[in-house]
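sry for the spam today, last one i promise. C-alpha cells for design, 364 residues
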C-alpha cells in the first residue's frame, strides 16, 4: 500500500508485449518482452463516495468541508455549481460568490442525484458529482446554455457554501411535533393531488415519524396525534400503491389496523396490495371484513368484483398448469411402463437363449 509522498519501485514483466515500443521524443525504445522497472510516487488521491447503493451517483471530494454537520431533507442550502456533459460542454451554471443559489432539498429544485449528493456534503466542501440518467434526465432537455441529450451522464462541480437544517423531531417539544406533522401532511396532500406520488410519500413518511413515538405525549396530545398518524399512513399507502410498491403499502395499512382494527380504508387498500402480490385469500378476508363493517361501500364492492375475476383467471391458469403437469406425468408413466415391458421381454429372450445353448451342449 502506498502512502502520500511515498516511493515504490516495481517490476513490470513483459511491459510493452512482444512488439516492444519505438523511441518517442526523449524516451528510449523498449525491446520486445522487456521487464520494466517503474518508480512510483503517490502525490495525492481523491476518495470516491457512492451516494446511491446502485453506484449511479458518485461523489469525489475536491476540497474538504468543515465540521461534521450535513444538510437533511428539507434543509435550506446555498450552493454554487456548474453542470457539464461528459464531453465537457456546460449546460447549467447556478450561484456565484456574491449570490449563491438558494433552495430547499427534497423539493425537486435540482436533479435528484445532485440533491442526494448535497445531503452528504459539509459546509465549504467542493465536490465533483457524477449523475447517471436515472437520477438526472431521462429525456432530452434544453437549457439556456446547451441541449442535454436523453439518458446523458451529468457531471456537476458543486460547492456547498452554507445551509440551515430543517429542525429534527428530537429538537422539538410535543406540540411542535404535532404541528410539524400536520404541516407535512398538508404538503403531502398537495403533491398527491398533482400526481407527485414519490415526493408526497416522503412528506407523509416524515409527518408520521414526528409523532410515531408518543410516550411523552399528554392524553390530549395523543388524541390529537392518533387520527393524524392514521391519515398519514393511509395516504402513504395510497402513494405506495400508485408507485407499485405493494409490500410497503401492505405494511402501512397493517400499521393503521393495529391502531384501528375496523378501518375500512386500511382493509380496502391492503386488499388492493394483496391482489397485486397474488395473495388472493388474504385479499378476500380483508374485503369481506370491510363489507361487514360497511356493506354499502361502493369502492370495496367494485374491488370484490375485481378480486372474483382475478380468482377465476387464477383458477383457469392453475387448472391448465396442473392439467399439463398430469398429462406429462401420465406420458412419463406410459414411457416407463413401456420401457419396463421391453426389459422383461429382453430378459425372457436371454433366458430362452441360455436354455437352447445348454440343450445344444448336451446333444454334442
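last one done:
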Amino acid at each position: 500500500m502506498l502512502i502520500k509522498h511515498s516511493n515504490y519501485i516495481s517490476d513490470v514483466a513483459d511491459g510493452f508485449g512482444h512488439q516492444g515500443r519505438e523511441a518517442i521524443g526523449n524516451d528510449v525504445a523498449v525491446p520486445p518482452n522487456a521487464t520494466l522497472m517503474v518508480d512510483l510516487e503517490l502525490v495525492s488521491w481523491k476518495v470516491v463516495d457512492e451516494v446511491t447503493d446502485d453506484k449511479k451517483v458518485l461523489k469525489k471530494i475536491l476540497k474538504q468541508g468543515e465540521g461534521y454537520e450535513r444538510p437533511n431533507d428539507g434543509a435550506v442550502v446555498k450552493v454554487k455549481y456548474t453542470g457539464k456533459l461528459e464531453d465537457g460542454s456546460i449546460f447549467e451554471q447556478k450561484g456565484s460568490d456574491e449570490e449563491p443559489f438558494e433552495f430547499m432539498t427534497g423539493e425537486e429544485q435540482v436533479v435528484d442525484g445532485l440533491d442526494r449528493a448535497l445531503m452528504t456534503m459539509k459546509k465549504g466542501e467542493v465536490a465533483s458529482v457524477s449523475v447517471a440518467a436515472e437520477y438526472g434526465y431521462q429525456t432530452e432537455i434544453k437549457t439556456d446554455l446547451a441541449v442535454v441529450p436523453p439518458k446523458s451522464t451529468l457531471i456537476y462541480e458543486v460547492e456547498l457554501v452554507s445551509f440551515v437544517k430543517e429542525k429534527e423531531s428530537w429538537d422539538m417539544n410535543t406540540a411542535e411535533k404535532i404541528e410539524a406533522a400536520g404541516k407535512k401532511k398538508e404538503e403531502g396532500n398537495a403533491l398527491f393531488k398533482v400526481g407527485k406520488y414519490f415526493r408526497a410519500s416522503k412528506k407523509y413518511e416524515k409527518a408520521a415519524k414526528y409523532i410515531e413515538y408518543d410516550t411523552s405525549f399528554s392524553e390530549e396530545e395523543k388524541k390529537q396525534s392518533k387520527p393524524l398518524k392514521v391519515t398519514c399512513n393511509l395516504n402513504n399507502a395510497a402513494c405506495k400503491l400508485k408507485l407499485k410498491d405493494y409490500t410497503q403499502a401492505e405494511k402501512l395499512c397493517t400499521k393503521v389496523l393495529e391502531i384501528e382494527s375496523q378501518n375500512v380504508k386500511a382493509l380496502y387498500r391492503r386488499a388492493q396490495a394483496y391482489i397485486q402480490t397474488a395473495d388472493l385469500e388474504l385479499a378476500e378476508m380483508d374485503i369481506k371484513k370491510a363489507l361487514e363493517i360497511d356493506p354499502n361501500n361502493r369502492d370495496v364492492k367494485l374491488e370484490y368484483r375485481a378480486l372474483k375475476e382475478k380468482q377465476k383467471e387464477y383458477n383457469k391458469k392453475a387448472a391448465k398448469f396442473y392439467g399439463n403437469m398430469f398429462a406429462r406425468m401420465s406420458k412419463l408413466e406410459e414411457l416407463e411402463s413401456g420401457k419396463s415391458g421391453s426389459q422383461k421381454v429382453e430378459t425372457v429372450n436371454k433366458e430362452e437363449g441360455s436354455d437352447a445353448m445348454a440343450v445344444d451342449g448336451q446333444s454334442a
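Helices lie at 112-118, 174-193, 197-210, 219-242, 246-259, 264-276, 280-293, 298-363. ok im logging off now
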